[in-house]
Amino acid sequence: MSREHKDLPTLETCLPTLAVHLDRQETFAFNKESQLFPIAGLVAAELNRQGKDDDTAKAETTDEDGISNIFSPLKAPDERHHPHLIELIANELKTAPSEIVDFEMVLYDTQKACVGGLNEELLFSPRLDNLEMSFCSTLGLINSVNSSFSLDDEESIRLISLFDHEEIGSNTAQGADSNFLPTIIRRLSVLSGFGGNAEPDPDAYEQSLSKSFLISADMAHSVNPNYAAKYETDHKPEMNKGTVIKINANARYATNSPGIVLVQECARRARVPLQLFVVRNDSSCGSTIGPMLSAALGTRTLDMGNPQLSMHSIRETGGIYDVDYAVKLFESFFVHYTELGGRLIVD
Fold it and tell me: For the chain, how far is it from start to end, CA to CA, in angstroms?
């Protein structure tokens, strides 16, 4: 048995909403069980297809009574799902439909990202939250080691961790609430030679956590000019004016003053702007994996992200220059943290 990840470019579907002429509701509401079925085709077209294609023989052999000779605890995939869908998957895998044992399928917006705006200063894309910060942190890490001597005097381990399922609670094997990151850090911290020690220190893991600094990088909210009153008067981040440091007194974000000082110095050295965001006192506030990981690891943490509009919409909007700002900020953090981290003293 093998497992593969495949895209199905030939399977494009739509999720049609009811025309406003037929339902004059003031708020956009729908039933997740009965009103979110994707439409992949029409019955008549499928019947025509089957009439033109007669070599859709069953994969299993049957006896004279037409009963399958192969026992299966579950119904076959082509009995649980539309047979044409199974054919599409099999064609993509270059195998027979009968070889498909099971599959998982996720719908996503297939429209590619594009640059727009009067001066091409805006980025229109699905899933900016949080692919943009994942991209920026990855590129920043790569840029920080682009020379043969980049790590000659490095005493720290430069690491990024990209998690799944943040939007549904992170409580999965691939999520930030798993033991994945603590386990990786523990294994790295007890390597022979780490920290200049020939033999691993029994307290190396705890020492690593106390010396480390975690940046929780998740997209932030740009001020929406159509809803400017929703933002705190002195905290209205704008696109293309730099990465946003997120602050919340109720610890919905993990940022504190020492972290702001550290990131501000990294930004100064990279010559990139920063912004601050605090939600209104009479407004609800989202959260990130920052507080979760900070509590689990006991590591100094800061929440930040690039500003965007229409977060969680199928098409989001960000600033094109903020991408470059964030890449340079991450690169500066990786390059300078060993020096700056040791100088952070909280009295």
Answer: 58
Of 212, 284, 214, 223, the C-alpha closest to 254 is 214
Q: Look at the block and give the residue holding tokens 């294609």.
A: 53
Give per-residue pLDDT as tens, 273-317: 999 999 998 888 888 999 999 999 999 999 999 999 999 999 999
Q: Classify strands 274-278 and 243-247 as parallel, antiparallel or unpaired.
A: parallel
Instruction: For residues 276 and 259, give the distance between their C-alpha atoms in angstroms, rounded to a whole number.
Output: 13
Distance CA 307, CA 244 (A): 6
Query: Of 326, 304, 346, 315, nearest to 136 (Cα)?
Result: 326
319 contacts: CB under 8 Å, gap ≥ 6 = 121, 122, 123, 222, 239, 240, 241, 306, 307, 308
The torsion angles phi and psi of 39, rounded to 5 degrees, stand at -100, 120
Amino acid at 316: E
Give the pTM.
Answer: 0.84
For residue 192, the model assigns a pLDDT of 66
Question: Is residue 235 scored above 60 in pLDDT?
Answer: yes
Can you tell me the distance from the alpha carbon of 340 to that of 266, in angstroms, rounded to the nearest whole number? 9
Per-residue pLDDT tens over the stretch 99-149: 999 999 888 888 899 999 999 999 999 999 999 999 999 999 999 999 889
Round to whole Å and give the CA distance between 238 and 163: 27
CA pair distance 218, 239, nearest whole angstrom: 15
